[in-house]
Amino acid sequence: MFVLTGCQYLAGARSMHNSRNYAIFTGLLCAARSRLANGSAIDKRSFQRVAVQLSRNRKHETNVSALFKPVQVQANVDDDDVGSELVGKLEKSELLKILNKFAQRREIKALCSENGLDSYLQQQAFGSFRRYCIEAENLPVDVHITFSDIMQGAGHIDDIFPYFLRHAKTMFPHLDCMDDLKKISDLRQPANWYPNARAITRKIVFHAGPTNSGKTYHAMERYLSAKSGVYCGPLKLLATEVYNKANERGTPCDLVTGEERKFGISDTSPANHVACTVEMTSVNTPYEVAVIDEIQQIRDQQRGWAWTRAFLGLIADEVHVCGEAGALELLEKICETTGETVEVRRYDRLTELTVEDSALGSLDNVMPGDCIVCFSKNDIYTVSREIEARGKEVAVIYGGLPPGTKLAQAAKFNDPSNSCKVMVATDAIGMGLNLSIRRIIFYSLVKPTMNERGEREIDTISVSSALQIAGRAGRYRTQWEHGYVTAFKSEDLQTLQRILSQTPEPLKQAGLHPTADQIELYAYHLPNSSLSNLMDIFVNLCTVDDSLYFMCNIEDFKFLAEMINHVPLPLRARYVFCCAPINRKMPFVCSMFLKIARQYSRNEPITFDFIKRNCGWPFKLPRTILDLVHLESVFDVMDLYLWLSYRFMDLFPEAAHVREAQKELDEIIQQGVFQITRLLKNTEAGVESDTSTSHMRRMTHIKEPRIPSASRGRLTERLLAQGLLTPGMLSELRKEWDAQQLAQPNAVGSSKDPQDGATDSDDDDSYAANTKNTKTRRKRKK
């Protein structure tokens, strides 16, 4: 039998100020009592496992403490050394001995723990207090006299503690408000954040079914017949489709997305129906019917919070939720916290879907109506070029394309009279586009994903994603009603068949995200912390009911917060800027984001001329893939402008001009994508890019890199993975570089052309474009 010793009990009790430790420890004691009452032995391994868990929790607390940045404690500003006049000068060597002895006392460390100073904070505070006392010209009178008494034997060394604690609380302001911070970040009952929704009895209807089952159709019919309604979709394309369909059927409907507003009646007379992207959902407007589409996205690591907010917060008599059946159990559990029940309507697929017994094997076997799904731009470029080399026209769709270009490519593929019968696409076709596909061919089953820690992982495609993509084959009431699915590689076929034979894994948790109000309250208590630091502290201190919810990944938010940390902005404006939908992998977009933030901070309007000047307007048709990538980046910059224009109207006054320019740019990109094979050939042939040298340097901030002639570096692998470089291009670059090295053996790299017109702000752009060197550049500027 294993007996819990007094020391082990004490160790557990000391850690019980943390509620998580308390729950673990009391659980352990209850189990021990139960086993003893039954005459059973207590398993030593159980106690060891709990000890390990308690140890991990202590490490977690230390990691949280490290997030609190110390505030520098100012030296005593009194010119007169009153303490010395009263009791004489202090001997520095004796003072140092007292301070060291004070820091080593076990009783002092225990007092520190009781006041919220863990071992990490104690170490920081002791070191700071020691320097403060030794280096000060004169100490505050009360501190000076206390040290003098201790030296004279008239005082106890523990008398220093109140002054040390005062110093520590000045250094770490959170010590005085830790309870408040924990209350602010208590997210265990998010349903209570929406009192207006809780004040009514909502009817929750879950339309569960696979792709092409008609689930959304039935929900939309109820939406269109209602007196008022809101549709919440995952994509602008879907919201726009609902907006168009509603108005065509005589139901006036407004469109609200992050970048756009359209009105079914007029801008002065809002319609009773709204189609919006889920992030733009109003939780303050009452509706008769609300439709939340693709509810399984509630588990998304980046955007899941928006579905949670819509589901909990919509003020609607009826909330119709559409998605895969795996979301049902989670929704029912959430509804238990709101006192609501879920009515389930199940749908079966309307058309047949067959998984083929053989893989495609070769692109020679591609047939009309086929869609080859790739998970990287490099594969998109390679496959589309090889198919066109066989005399077949190809439609191309991937996530970075503007919505208009995606629709144009979809229309080209869907048109029976068009010569284009084959599509090459990423998983962007999984939702938002109506496509007439006969067969889905998975070029690969490996897809880059983001885990809960914001780290990039390469893993086999999930059951949910595979079913979503495969389900696009065989659309109801099209020329291809019977759908087929297969793999490109024979070695992938068995894995694909196994994946598609499964049902989607049940959803376990819904996403949450800190609100602007919560972060503002944090900033009130921690005024010296940066926004990125506040977010880190919030996420680490927050309490979440992890049986239902998780905290969404905030890495993109923090990336933007750190990028503009040096730009003077009010906290609320800084928070809004950091919520901007930006792809941080696009350096040009990031550099423009920084420029816009700097312009805003100076209270200077961001005009259309500003956009034209910095983006190289007017544009020509792209000649190379690099030109096309740059145009896509510029389109995203215009999206950013429009997104900000709805939040800061006074300083983004020319949204109408930017929108018109964006339409023109969309058409240029469409023409570029129609000729994507020619762009690839031009790139490999070394045709000079139309994008100006200065703009390309701003995009990449790379000075003619040394390209190894024998091996590929990390940069090369990254460019290949992003589709910005092909093996053929790499070979050509190696040849050119080797030839250049022979001609100029001492060349290191070209310097910046003085005619490029670079300014100080261009240096700031490089800060955004190459964040890995941020600290180095700051030091150089200093």
Characterization of this structure:
With 782 residues, the chain is an alpha/beta fold. 49% of the residues lie in helices and 11% in strands. It is built from 33 helices and 18 strands. It has an eight-stranded mixed beta sheet with strand order 4-3-5-2-6-7-1-8, with helices on both faces. A six-stranded parallel beta sheet has the order 9-16-13-10-12-11. Helix 5 packs antiparallel against helix 7 and helix 22 packs across helix 23. The termini are far apart. The model is unreliable at 1-28, 33-37, 39-62, 692-712 and 745-782 (pLDDT under 50). It comes from Drosophila arizonae (Fruit fly). InterPro entries: DEXQc_SUV3 (IPR055206), Helicase_C-like (IPR001650), P-loop_NTPase (IPR027417), RNA-DNA_Helicase (IPR050699), SUV3_C (IPR022192), Suv3_C_1 (IPR041082), Suv3_DEXQc (IPR044774), Suv3_N (IPR041453). It is found in: Mitochondrion. Residues 346-523 form the Helicase C-terminal domain. Its cofactor is Mn(2+); Mg(2+).
